[in-house]
Amino acid sequence: MTCMVAATGGLLFGYDIGISGGVTSMDEFLLKFFPNVYHKEKSMKNGGSQYCKFSDHLLQLFTSSLYVAALVSSFGASITTKALGRKISMLIGGLIFLIGAILNGVAMNLGVLILGRLLLGVGIGYANQSVPVYLSEMAPAKLRGALNVCFQMAVTIGILIANLVNYGTATMKKNGWRVSLVLAAVPAIIMTVGTVFLPDTPNSLIDRGQKEQAKAMLQKIRGTSNVDNEFEDLVIASDLSKQVASPWGNIMQRRYRPQLTVAILIPFFQQLTGINVINFYAPVLFKTLGFGDGAALMTAVITGVVNVVATLVAIFTVDKFGRRGLFLVGGTLMLVCQIAVGSLIGSVFGLDGHGQFSKVLGDVTLAIICVYVAAFAWSWGPLGWLVPSEVFPLEIRSAGQSINVSVNMFFTFVIGQLFLTMLCGMKFGLFFFFGGFVFIMTLYVFFFLPETKGVHIEEITKIWRSHWFWKNYVPAEETRV
């Protein structure tokens, strides 16, 4: 129950990911804040390139500005998480997100709208830094994968709820976009109130010198008084971590090269799958493909349902089949789908962007996109957060997770800011562009990512010592300084 409550932090991230695409497709919102886009879209109904109808840097800034703030705030969250505990960081994130949601709902000009988005980003930076670490430290090794995936499950539920909200508010004659934006306060309240009642992790309590409370908490969450071995491992890890003068300097040492590589490449590849093309701009993308306003929002709901159901697959299989298997199967399917979608769009629109999808081709494209979303939802979606959160030793864990979050947020910003412009410039070739990265990341997993299933979080260094490549970097006996 503790892990389930903590995982609701993903609702913040998911709701915001899902809500922005629907809001930016609403005529009232566009007319108020982005009138140029509104008039361009209406004029292109009578001709013009379908690829470029929504291309506008300010419109993209509305979506992407949040992730710049999340990137910067993740470093502050690292300091808070280590000094005050995971729980306090989660609480701070929820409160700041709540303020941002209220500002977005009452915004009367673009400046206030962007300020609200920036505050949402700070909240997400704190939540995404602290929640995965919290889940990994609280969960027993045999259930760590499933319980950590609950964070991604909450993200997908947040996306689905946002898509349903947008579908409903789009029918409102006035202020539907305000309702969509201000309802982001609901997941913020759920997380903030829930966090008040959460305990802190044994790892964090030990790290702050509260060993008796830590042992009592470990006994409580493991359901047994026989926790001496695990508790001793935690104490030793904490003592070693305190010998590290600078986690940020230490993480750059050669012995931590495997973990640093994971912290950078996993979130990088996660965003270069192109998934946030669907998450951010699904209604806009489907309107580009010729779907009507209501149909475009409904297709976003359909992909949201697929996202939730497929994430359930990850919850029930990640600790049975392991991380590598899900990564490889998901990556292969995503590659096939990217090639198929790019080919279909190219066959209809060509290079000039003129054309119209038939109902049959539109439905086929939607079906392929649903397969793509499902493949991501059981692989790179949840595992992109799980694997980086479980591979770091305690002395560099907060720094490592901050790098993971900041890289993720940076490339989320890049995709959010540039996708519509890239679609206008690269046309259907954009989907082949993302497909190329899916191919590369699948090779990376096959050759360089070891299996972490069932390994205790404080013993994770052992897997690097036995890996064919990374054993050249990790010493046979740890000599942390």
From TrEMBL:
GO molecular function: monosaccharide transmembrane transporter activity; symporter activity
Residue span(s) of domain Major facilitator superfamily (MFS) profile: 2-453
Predominant place of localization: membrane
Localization of this protein: Membrane
TM segment ranges: 58-76, 88-108, 114-135, 147-165, 177-198, 260-282, 294-318, 325-346, 366-387, 399-422, 428-449
The UniProt record lists the keyword Transmembrane helix: yes
Membrane topology: Multi-pass membrane protein
PROSITE patterns, A to Z: MFS, SUGAR_TRANSPORT_1, SUGAR_TRANSPORT_2
InterPro entries recorded: MFS_dom (IPR020846), MFS_STP/MST-like_plant (IPR044778), MFS_sugar_transport-like (IPR005828), MFS_trans_sf (IPR036259), STP/PLT_plant (IPR045262), Sugar/inositol_transpt (IPR003663), Sugar_transporter_CS (IPR005829)
Keyword match Transmembrane: yes
UniProtKB keywords: Membrane, Sugar transport, Symport, Transmembrane, Transmembrane helix, Transport
Gene Ontology cellular component list: membrane
PANTHER family xrefs: SOLUTE CARRIER FAMILY 2, FACILITATED GLUCOSE TRANSPORTER, SUGAR TRANSPORT PROTEIN 11
Similarity comment: family membership: Belongs to the major facilitator superfamily. Sugar transporter (TC 2.A.1.1) family. Belongs to the major facilitator superfamily. Phosphate:H(+) symporter (TC 2.A.1.9) family.
NCBIfam families given in the database record: SP
Protein name: Sugar carrier protein C
Organism, as annotated: Capsicum annuum (Capsicum pepper)
